[in-house]
């Protein structure tokens, strides 16, 4: 059942994408520093979406790497603390009374 819903959702997205591409098929000229490029508007929007997503991922990459480093450091600290607790539990109790 879940696969059927997923396939239907994918089909709906593809149909919306195709209709968007057909409605926005007229060429648009893009001027950049080294030249000029003529692309259909829909294709240009898809390229810009991909470039924006890539820039967003690269922007978050340093944050993700620092958090992964912090997780590794905390796991080492946890393992050390667990070893210490285990050693303390093995010590004999002294009667202080």
First-last Cα distance: 69 Å
Overall residue-averaged pLDDT value: 89
Question: How many β-strands, per DSSP?
Answer: 2
Helix content: over 70%
Main beta sheet: strand number and arrangement?
Answer: 2 strands, antiparallel
Label the structural class: alpha+beta
Strand order of the largest sheet: 1-2
- Supply Rg: 29 Å
Number of domains: 1
Note the beta-strand portion. Answer: 5-15%
What features would you describe in this structure?
The chain is α+β, with helices and mostly antiparallel strands and 97 residues long. The chain is built from two helices and two strands, in the order αββα. The chain has one domain (7-88). The protein is 74% helix and 12% strand. A two-stranded antiparallel sheet has the order 1-2. Strand 1 (27-32) and strand 2 form a beta hairpin. It is elongated, with a radius of gyration of 29 Å.
Task: Give the helix/strand layout.
Elements (H helix, E strand, L loop, with lengths): L1 H22 L3 E6 L2 E6 H50 L7
Antiparallel strand pairs: 1-2
